[in-house]
Specification:
By secondary structure, this protein is mainly β. It has no helices and eleven strands. Strands 2, 4, 5, 6, 9, 10 and 11 form a seven-stranded mixed beta sheet that branches. A four-stranded antiparallel beta sheet has the order 1-3-8-7, with no helix packed on it. A hairpin with a 4-residue loop joins strand 7 and strand 8. It is globular and about 40 Å long. The termini are far apart.
Length: about 120
């Protein structure tokens, strides 16, 4: 089991930026495939951005061109740079990881390790 701890959430006005971090406490081979998800009130947990062991990235249409996922493999830290934030981006943000390549990297069920989340609130 990998322990994941998110940080960097907060309150920001629309159009602003935040950078989320996710520190992984276990070995790198357990974090070969990582992703950011979010869950807003009354909504399903939504996959936003994924990164694989070769640093290849994929994005959901809702955040493409605004959010950037990256990782520091040496430090076992995953990042999510969020720019041009909108009120509809308000949610709890979670990082997730899995050691095997997911069939669908945007599916919640594909990931075995989760952090507790960090909240993001975007005001208009």
């Amino acid at each position: 089991q990998v322990n994941l701890v998110e940080s960097g959430g907060g309150s920001v006005q629309a159009g602003g930026s935040l950078r989320l971090s996710c520190a992984a406490s276990r070995y790198a081979q357990n974090n070969r495939y990582m992703a950011w998800f979010r869950e807003g009130p009354g909504n399903e947990r939504e996959g936003l951005a994924t990164i694989d062991e070769d640093a290849r990235t994929r994005y959901a249409n809702s955040v493409k061109d605004r959010f950037t996922i990256s990782k520091d493999s040496g430090a076992n830290i995953l990042y999510l740079q969020m720019d041009n934030l909108k009120p509809e981006d308000s949610a709890m943000y979670y990082c997730a990881s899995h050691r095997r390549r997911p069939t669908d990297p945007f599916l919640r069920s594909e990931y075995t390790s989760w952090g507790r989340g960090t909240p993001v609130l975007v005001s208009s």
